[in-house]
Design brief:
The chain has a domain of 65 residues. It is built from five helices and two strands; from the N terminus they run ββααααα. Helix 2 crosses helix 3. The chain is elongated, with a radius of gyration of 26 Å.
C-alpha cells in the first residue's frame, strides 16, 4: 500500500507543483513474495548479501564493506550526532530558561503583588512572547 500526496497552498488550495514526487509507503510490509515486500525488506536489511535488489545490495555494500565507505558513513554519522546533540542542548537550555522565567513571574506576582504583565516587563521578556508565557502559568 502506498499513497501519492500533493501539497497545496493553504490560502488558495492551489497545488504546489515544485516538480517533486513524494510517495509514502507502508514500510511494515513483510511479505517478500511481492516486489514491494522485497524492497521494504532491503530497506531494513543490514546485510547486503541478504538483499533482493542487486542495485541496493551493491551500493549498500560499498558503504559497509569498503574502508572508504566505512569512513564516509562514520563521518556522516559523527556529523549527525553532533548536529542532534547541539540541537538537543539548545532545546534543553530553552526549556530551562522558560521554567526559570515562569518561576520568577510567579514569585514576583506572589511576593511583590505585581501583575503578570509588569512581572514580564521587569524580567525583560519580549512582549511578543507574553501570550506564550501567560498560557504556561
Amino acid at each position: 500500500m502506498h499513497a501519492h500526496i500533493e501539497y497545496a497552498k493553504i490560502q488558495t488550495d492551489d497545488v504546489f507543483d515544485d516538480g517533486s514526487h513524494i510517495i509514502y509507503v507502508n514500510s511494515s510490509i513483510t511479505d517478500v513474495s511481492t516486489p514491494l515486500g522485497q524492497l521494504m525488506h532491503d530497506f531494513r536489511c543490514a546485510n547486503p548479501d541478504e538483499m533482493y535488489y542487486d542495485v541496493l545490495a551493491e551500493r549498500t555494500g560499498r558503504f559497509k564493506k569498503t574502508e572508504e565507505g566505512e569512513s564516509t558513513m562514520n563521518a556522516a554519522l559523527d556529523a549527525l550526532i553532533r548536529d542532534v546533540s547541539e540541537e538537543r542542548v539548545a532545546e534543553a537550555l530553552e526549556r530551562g530558561m522558560e521554567r526559570e522565567r515562569i518561576s520568577a513571574i510567579r514569585r514576583m506576582m506572589t511576593e511583590l503583588q505585581l501583575s503578570v504583565e509588569k512581572a514580564m516587563s521587569v524580567l525583560a521578556i519580549p512582549q511578543s512572547e507574553w501570550g506564550r508565557y501567560k498560557a504556561m502559568l
